[in-house]
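Interim report to the steering committee. The following record documents the input for Glycosyltransferase (836 residues).
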Amino acid sequence: MPVLWGVSFDATAMSGVVVEFLKTAKLFSDRGCRVHLDLGYDIKADKGRFFQRYQQESCPDWVTLDRVDGIAQIAGYDQEFVAATLEAVRNGQPPDTDRVTAELADAIVRTWEDRGVTLVMVENGTLPENVAYTKALYKAIAAYGTRHSLGRYVLWRDHDLMWQSEPDKYGSFPYVSTPPMVNSPHIHYFALHEEARRRTMEWMPQLRNLAVLPNTFAPPDRPARPDFREHYGIPRQARIVARCTRIIPQKRIDRDLHLLAQLRDTCLFVAGDTEEDPEETRRLRALAEELGVPVVFGGVLEPCESAGDGFSVRDLLAHADVVSFLTSYDYESYGNPIGEAIAAGVPYIASRYALYDTVYAGFEAPVLDILVHDLPTREFAEQTHELMTNRERRAEVVAHNQRLGTHNREAANDLVSTLFPPAMGENVRLSVVLPVYNEAANIDDVLLSLHNQDDIDPDMYEIVVVDNNSTDDTVARARRFAERSKADVHVISEREQGVACARRTGMEFAARRSRNREAPGERFYLVSADADCQVDPRWLTELHAAMERDKAAIGVCDYYYNAEHFVGRPRLWDAIDRTLRCRAVTFALFGGFPDGKGFAVERQAYEDVGGIEIFYQLQHGRFVNHLSDDWDFGIKVRGSGHDITYVPRSKVEINPRRVNHALDEVIAGRAYGNDGIIVMRDIRPEAPPKTADLTEAEALQAWEFSIKDFTPKNTILPVLLTPSLLDDDAVVAFFGEDLAARLGARIAEIKDEMRVVDFLAIHSYKTPAYRLYFEFRDEIFARLRAEVGEDIGYPPPLPECFDEVPEDRFAEFVKYYCEDRESGEAHNYFGNGGVF
């Protein structure tokens, strides 16, 4: 069983930091992880708990409170040492911690070995509370990760970095003696928001693997106690302003008291430790008496996640009319009580502290501008009163905030699941990767087709849905499907827009996880599927069988259109049908190239060539990712000497909307991608769908674009990348001995002329493939007519620019023309990017 070890630098039984740890740790607990949590009593010196035994701390029953074995026996390591070390850091005097650090690191590693730790979560480890322990963690992480080959097994999250913490305690940032964050192969770093990420990168510009992981909004998982009001003596008719906070001056609870003075029939409930700062508690009680407002100091409530018998924050929120967070301007960065309110469906009010707009952009609430008004204004009080008493307005605000909060929570959960993926089932041999973007109309049918596969055990494959920033209910539908699926279905996310980025993320997710259950001689396959195309019932069975039989690096499916979708459009269907017939012949000869609609790649081959590479192009002055990652990946595999096999019995039905999407451009004489730019476009169904057939001229235009796109890529490119194919008997029979020999000789000449030794880059294969097409087009079309049918016809007309080119200089000017990296003309001529 995997084991998660959490360590908090907060030294508090149930702080906001610990609560957020529990929310994240629950994701791992739900996967079967045992969760151990070190509350940090042995780390932080100023909370009065150093080496204190765990006694009354309330945690969920799935958490084991734990600590590092033998730490109290390290000579010189005690509360005084930690306090003196922090003072040295504040004064810019690097403390001598080497011996203690080394012994701490050894103790941590021994403890992790004893518990069988496989994952680690560090909360607030960069904060200079205890630099000896921070350094020890880095040493332990490196030693333990290397020993067990764990890869990135550490989630290191900083809630309170130096620029957003207490300057009275830590002094001025930066601190010379603070341990720098290290680029470790074992650590994923997380900041709470973009501003924290930006400031972190200013401090540590060389840092890699830093993502944004905001605190999450977990909805209640148990009902509230109905006797809360009665227990605390709050009248049933009184409204409640809830304040969950430490009772210290920085929290500015006095603002809540002044607000109450402007509200009727309202009580303030303060959930916090009245003994932490007794003087502040006395001051607040006196102010409440002076203002004549009712206040309940309810003490420390159990956390929302607690399953104990005592009253919890959830109970308070269930009875509260509004949650208040009127804190100091420079004290808070996140404001965990706001998140709890959003999750519980309670409206909140807040002060505009330094990072409020960074963290809660888009959420709705009355916000007090404390740089202008130190205390609540009449207008602010009226807004608060309306929020508590106007049911319609309250419901609107709650619904809006919960929608936004749910989206943020799911995004955070997807990020954690992507970077720290769950273990793969021991019988899984194939991972089907499905990128999705706003596919709510199709996702159920597509997932059902992937799920209902004949003659293959559901335990043998899994489905990885990669959400690419959907704004409809695609993800919700995928999650509902996952709950009832016999096969494992994972939903992860990719924030960079583009199907290539999403496909790569899914492939990497599956590849990483597949390594934990390798057996000698076992092959594992990454399979691509498309969110708008349905697969046949034997799609996966046939693909897997062929890959096992042929031991190829890539297996390419057969793709087809349903002819019923083109009834009444015979000219269009004829152009499509001819293209598909040509493809069947050439794929059978050369294996073809992968198409995102359906292909499989053996994982080791995938990793050997570096996986899917994302290419970028300039469009209108900005970089955009190139769409044809599937073809480019196939070129990398083929160019690296790996085999590709064509699996005609593994079939994928193409959504006809793809044709309608490209048709207008094709008829107008433009390619799917213009001027060398091929980018993702929105091709969801038009309303109403197109049903008119093409004219004869339009049908000719469509066919010529299709065959020009098809021929260089499917009859020339394979032998350009793998000239040894020209020694294959079937290939020689297709071309004829004379043409095969001349084609091979010309390929050698062009390679030597261009000094091309590597055909992996996006454009490096286009120029020679285009040139060979022009030089051999008549002969190749003759062979296609012979093999496929006379209706294939003859090559489309040459561009007009060749009309005045002398015959003896034709090949020379073809070279200039085909340098589409400069002009894009050849790209437009060939319709690169696909038509049918």
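The chain has three domains: 3-212, 228-407, 566-589+615-628+656-836. The committee is asked to note this result when reviewing the revised timeline.
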